[in-house]
């Protein structure tokens, strides 16, 4: 089967990680990266920055798929804004999985989501659109993850966890079975979530508390 042509949006450090995922998946041909005008002609790993997102309409008309490769350290707003712009323009949006053997055939993964290396996604998990499920994360059975959410490196979501839209769960954080986390919540690296989080904000510690 021929590889689909893919345009990446965002050429920073997260883009490098996603390029490795794309290479491993073997399903996509990267046609180039869109970033700031002054970066056109430079490279990220072995891929050229070929234009800016002001040229989206032309690339859509040419039949490319798209994937947002801007990282999400705090706010989900930049990724969300571009994703919604792509949807409004009718652009086809890729979903990229490093190794499908780690993802249950009973799981559902939304458009624009990237499943990085060494991730486990168990049965009856539902992951929303434009999410980052980063290296080494473990998403156990029946979890629900909202749109535009970043599950960072080494995070453990035990069974039946619900994470809302536009959240960030920091590196190595652990969420106990059945816990629900409100939209727009940040959980700090290494934190332990043992009770529902109903008020958006930043939570850190073992067990975590609102800062």
- Would you identify the regions where 5 or more consecutive residues have pLDDT less than 50? none
Q: SS-based structural class?
A: alpha/beta
**End-to-end span in angstroms?**
51 Å
Described by the principal axes of the CA atoms, the overall outline is: globular
- Largest sheet, spatial ordering of strands: 6-8-11-14-17-20-22-23
CATH class of the largest domain: Mainly Beta
CATH architectural grouping of the largest domain: 3 Solenoid
Biggest sheet layout: 8 strands, mixed
Total beta strand runs = 23
Number of domains: 2
CATH topology of the largest domain: UDP N-Acetylglucosamine Acyltransferase, domain 1
Element-by-element helix/strand order: EHEEEHEHEEEEEEEEEEEEEEEEEE
Average residue-wise pLDDT: 97
Helix run count: 3
List keywords for this structure.
211 residues, 2 domains, 3 helices, alpha/beta, Rossmann fold, 15% helix
Could you give a quick summary of the protein structure above?
With 211 residues, this protein is an alpha/beta fold. The chain has two domains: 4-88, 3-Layer(aba) Sandwich (Rossmann fold); 96-198, Hexapeptide repeat proteins (UDP N-Acetylglucosamine Acyltransferase, domain 1, 3 Solenoid), CATH 2.160.10.10. 15% of the residues lie in helices and 30% in strands.
């Amino acid at each position: 089967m021929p590889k689909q042509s893919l345009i990446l949006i965002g050429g920073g450090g997260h883009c490098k990680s996603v390029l490795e995922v794309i290479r491993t998946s073997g399903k996509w041909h990267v046609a180039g990266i869109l970033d700031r005008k002054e970066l056109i002609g430079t490279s990220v790993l072995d891929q050229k920055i070929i234009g800016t997102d002001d040229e989206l309409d032309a690339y859509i008309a040419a039949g490319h798929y798209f994937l947002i490769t801007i990282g999400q350290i705090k706010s989900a707003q930049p990724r969300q804004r571009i994703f919604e712009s792509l949807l409004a323009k009718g652009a086809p949006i890729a979903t990229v999985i490093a190794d499908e053997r780690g993802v249950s055939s009973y799981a559902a993964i939304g458009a624009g989501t990237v499943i990085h290396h060494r991730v486990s996604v168990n049965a009856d998990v539902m992951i929303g659109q434009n999410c980052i499920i980063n290296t080494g994360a473990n998403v156990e059975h029946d979890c629900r993850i909202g749109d535009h959410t970043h599950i960072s490196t080494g995070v453990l979501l035990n069974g039946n966890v619900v994470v809302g839209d536009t959240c960030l769960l920091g590196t190595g954080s652990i969420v106990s079975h059945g816990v629900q986390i409100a939209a727009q919540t940040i959980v700090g690296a290494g934190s332990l979530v043992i009770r529902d989080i109903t008020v958006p904000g930043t939570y850190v510690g073992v067990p975590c508390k609102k800062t």
